[in-house]
Amino acid sequence: MDQIELIHVSKKFTTKTLGTVTAVNNLNLKIKEGECFSILGPSGCGKTTTLRMIAGFEDLSDGEIYLSGRPVSVKEKNLYIPPEKRGLGMVFQSFAVWPHMNLFENVAFPLRVQNINKTEIKKRVEEALHHTNLDGMGKAYPSDLSGGQQQRIALARAIITNPKVMLLDEPFSNLDPKTRESMRFEIKKLQKKFNFTIIFVTHDQSEAMAISDRMMVMDMGNIVQVDTPTNLYNKPINRFVHNFLGKSNFTRVIIENNKVYPRNDKSQPLSCELPNNGEREAVLATRPNTIELNHTNGYKTKIEKRIFLTNYIEYIVKVGDQIIQVQTPHFDEFKEGQTCYVKFPSVMWYSAEEDLKDNERDCRQII
Ligand code: ADP
Ligand code: MG
Q1: Are residues 199 and 296 in the same domain?
Q2: What is the DSSP letter of 365?
Q3: Separation of CA 193 and ligand 2 centre (Å)
Q4: Is the dihedral of CA 203, 204, 210, 211 positive or negative?
Q5: Taken in order 47, 48, 52, 53, is the CA torsion positive or negative?
Q6: Is 213 a domain residue?
Q7: Residue nearest to ligand 1 atom 21, measured at CA
Q8: For 293-313, how does the pLDDT look when each residue is reduced to its tens digit (9 = 90+)?
Q9: CATH number, domain with residue 320
Q10: Model's pTM, two decimal places?
Q11: Which of 17, 36, 107, 175 has the fewest CB atoms within 10 Å around its CB?
Q12: Structural domain tally of the chain?
């Protein structure tokens, strides 16, 4: 059975200044038991709103939500189960620990409100502190701890009720990069131990890729694509996903006589396979690390710029009047100004109109 199911879920907010904003638009989604599922997308695309509706902190404007087959929000029937009765754990970006309570009391809180006896509480708090590497720290106060440790308190408090689903909203965004990385492993370890399903919200694509079984990319309240991290990275459905999931080059091209030319330059064709939709104009999308630079064959150009980065060298080259970035390992070196040849063994094709759509989106986000 699916553990979480959203059917036609929408959320509109009405504000005095902005009028009505559609934060989430007709979302249909199924998440399986035990999955680690990420919701990924730029700021304002509706991630938090989606999570808050699943948690029950936000009413729906339309649609239905089921947890393990049980309806928890059904707009049409005015059915709404409050958050504390949904069996979920939650951790937010802001550490959300109570500063006036010590660690023990912070973690014990969800059990105290359930009137569980003292001996049981003590046993379970100690266990939760142990699993979050906070052994023996029950008497400390949150202000005595680092950001990473404070977020562990929030995790301990979330696991103590043995939730079936853990909702995490950018939980590691306020931590330094190293702590952040280690917390990813910790959350996965906790998942193995306690067998919960994870919904992980983030705007950080590498974080989502590192921990997810599947991810959903959202844009302006809509689902754009749902798939495994590998499939999303290798087969992004459109230019937006391609760009969001990693470094991308988008080159406008013209296809003529079964050859691909950079727009505004028919002097030589690009070395790549043809798109199969028969269009005359298209966008050629490439990842900088899949482009081949060599000394003998391909599209002849020159190195405009060479940038030494720790794991690779980045070269800027031009195809026609368009710039592309190429990343290669250190052993394959070219100098600035040197002639080189470019090949594109691995490409994705998008329609030329996507250029316009992207520009529209950029404008809207700036506004
Ligand atoms: P994300 O978490 O992806 O950054 P949110 O879900 O927080 O995005 O917000 C989605 C959209 O809904 C944004 O345009 C935001 O301004 C709007 N929004 C969110 N919460 C409210 C609210 N309480 N009142 C009005 N607008 C809101
Ligand atoms: Mg958010």
Answers
A1: no
A2: H
A3: 28
A4: negative
A5: negative
A6: yes
A7: 13
A8: 999 999 999 999 999 888 899
A9: 2.40.50.140
A10: 0.89
A11: 17
A12: 2
